[in-house]
Amino acid sequence: MRRSMKLAAVVLSSSLGIASLAACGAKSTDNTSSSASAGASGSSLKVGMAYDIGGRGDQSFNDSAARGLDKAKSELGASVFEAEAKTGEAETDKEQRLKDLVSSGYNPVVAVGFVYQDAVNKVAKDNPNVKFAIIDSASPDQPNNVTSLTFSEQEGSYLAGVAAANKSTAKHVGFIGGVQSELIKKFEAGYTAGVHSVDPNIKVEVTYLTTPPDFSGFTDPGKGKQAAQGQLDKGADVIYSAAGSSGNGSIEAVATAGKWAIGVDSDQAAQPALAKYKDHILTSMVKNVDVAVFKYIEAYKNGNPITGVKNFDLKEGGVSLATTGGHIDDIKAQLDKATQAITSGATKIPTAPQG
Q1: All domains of the chain, ordered by start, with CATH?
Q2: What does the alpha-carbon distance between residue 154 and residue 259 come to, in Å, rounded to a whole number?
Q3: If the chain, 355 residues long, is cut into consecutive pieces of 10 residues, what is the mean pLDDT of each piece?
Q4: Could you give phi then psi for residue 312, rounded to 5 degrees?
Q5: pTM for the full model?
Q6: What DSSP element (H or E) covers 311?
Q7: What is the DSSP secondary-structure string of 244-277?
């Protein structure tokens, strides 16, 4: 269940700004009335975060970003304000959410998810003195005050595929993507390549829950559960879901069937809301969005902001496999070998499905 947090009293640069932020699903803030400029320290550091649909409490992608924001709050003294996207909202809603954060003095502003790319480009262009970061997207025409924080999801997913192939007794595994987008296809491509690196004869079921412009595939556990059940009925015994909170439904179905689930973005076996299923979560492909968010905010505070496109790969610790539960301890040698091959450059992972 999504956590709700009371807003602390705060002096904002515009009373209309806070009203608009609240309407956009704002989560929390801290006391400060000072705006940040090229760099900031202490209470003058005001960070705005606009979450993707699902928001804080999704047990996955957004929660990973939230951990980075929480660390910036505790270790850097940042004052923060959080707002989230709503399923089915218009592009103008995203733009207004970012505008409200800017008008309320938040700088930098972090947009969580590729769905914000057009809105970030537009609002950043109109506010050249404000720094923006966008996670999981890079646009060739984005303004200079926008930084892209991207990840090599295909590398971590390749390792998830190696784990799945080694654990599948049916020689039949599955992949569930939330939305059929270029980003999620990176997860599929890496996973399938990893599976087939172990055994090219293993069958990989692939299901996408929705296609753009319908992004509800990231926020519908019911759809995730139904898709997983369909793959289980076909004989899959290990299922990897890259589907935001929809993946929670997939994990439920797989665990109920006594098979193996692979989580995504956060260490899902360690999430309280999924505790009852942890014995059937083989591993999770952890995308360390929290690391990227914190490093970006820290660099901004120190007056040396990260610019352009910053990619976080396996070698840098941007992606990894979770070991909670010890379920992949027995295949550590195989995973270490695959990791070494990737980080050394010997193994190249596709970023789009092959064939």
Answers
A1: 15-151+290-312 (3.40.50.2300), 153-286+323-343 (3.40.50.2300)
A2: 24
A3: 33 37 44 38 83 89 94 97 91 97 98 96 98 96 97 98 98 98 97 98 98 93 98 98 96 98 95 95 96 97 95 94 98 98 97 90
A4: -110, 110
A5: 0.84
A6: strand 309-312
A7: TTHHHHHHHHHHHTT-EEEEEES-GGG-GGGGGG
